[in-house]
Amino acid sequence: MEIYNGEKLLEFTERFSSDEACLKYLSDIKWNSGFECRKCKHTKFSEGSKYQRCCTLCKHIESPTAGTLLHKVKFGVRKAFMIMFEMSATTKGLSASQVAKRYGITRKTAWLFMHKIRKGMESSQGLPIKGTVHVDEFVVGGKETDKQGRSYHSKKKKVVCAVELTEQDKIKRVYALRIEDFSAKSLRSIFTKHIDPGAQVITDEWKGYRPLQADYNIKQVPSDKGNNFKQLHIAIHQIKSWIRTNYSWVHKEHIDKYLAEYSYRINRSIFKDSIFHKLVERMMDRPHLSYQQIKISI
Predict the structure, then answer these.
(1) For 44-84, how does the pLDDT look when each residue is reduced to its tens digit (9 = 90+)?
(2) CA dist., res. 272 & res. 6, Å (int)
């Protein structure tokens, strides 16, 4: 198949000008390694309308979107492609209300599909960050007066962030996760999910990192008001600004999805041409999620 490369909106709309064109693209991705019936595992098929495949043994019919994060898209596959393109290609966030108005769908439908896209953007955790890694924590939420440093009793959402640096001390990759508190137990999550044990990790002098030194190469240095962690603080500032300027309120159970969206784009900033295609592959590779599986409140 000819994969889509590029960020130009006009070229994108010309390539995916109909639902059929989108379904063809999905079909090529889904069955790139061959067909296997989901019911009986038979490998021979006949092709039906809209690029469906019908098992020649049990007659089970499967669409290109069946069982994936694009399963039963109610508003058409082309609109789904457009939303995916916008969320992957633009550095500015989109709210569910904006997407609902732009594509003529309900806010609930937009909210659900955007969370499915964020699920597709989640890291596979298969390529942990290496080399020099800076780690720090921050909070997301409203202003609090007369409070400095880490607040265990704050109602703000607590997040730990890890930044992999290049040899020129530029940002290479970023990962961030919600944590319950600033204890070593909570901070360990970013290490086990995203940091290679051989990485040189540098943190400030917070005591929560000390117990982790038994398993990771951690060096603690004074923060010096952030001067020793400039790139890390730039990333944190960007994350906080992006969430604050695009979403009026983010439920704590969903904040990891928004953090995954940010990381997906920033970590592929040098591979922008293929960022949409990679997202489609992820959407096709990950299982269907219902509204009830995603919903906390809306």
Answers:
(1) 999 999 999 999 999 999 999 999 999 989 899 999 999 99
(2) 7
Task: Give, in order, the Cα–Cα distances in Å from 59 to each of 43, 53, 65.
Answer: 12, 9, 18
Neighbours of 182 (CB within 10 A): 19
Residues in Cβ contact with 141 at an 8 Å cutoff, skipping those fewer than 6 apart: 154, 155, 156, 157
| pLDDT tens digits along 42-52 | 999 999 999 99
Tokens at residue 192, please? Answer: 């086990």
**Contact in structure between 173 and 267 (CB atoms under 8 Å):** yes
Per this entry, what is the length of the chain?
298
User: In this model, does residue 297 exceed pLDDT 60?
Assistant: no
The answer on pLDDT for 24 being more than 80 is: yes
Q: What is the pTM of this model?
A: 0.90
Encode 192-207: b = buried (16+ Cβ within 10 Å), e = exposed: eebbbeebebbbbebe
Could you tell me which of 140, 99, 101 has the C-alpha nearest to residue 262? 140
Tokens of 242: 């992006």
CA 37 – CA 207 distance, rounded (Å): 54
pLDDT score at 39: 94
Closest to 60 measured CA to CA, from 42, 77, 34: 42
Residues 6+ apart with CB under 8 A from 264: 88, 121, 122, 123, 279
Q: Count Cβ atoms below 10 Å from residue 100 Cβ, excluding itself.
A: 17
DSSP string for 64-125: TTTTBTTTT-TT-HHHHHHHHHHHHH-SS---HHHHHHHHT--HHHHHHHHHHHHHHHS--S
DSSP class of residue 211 equals G
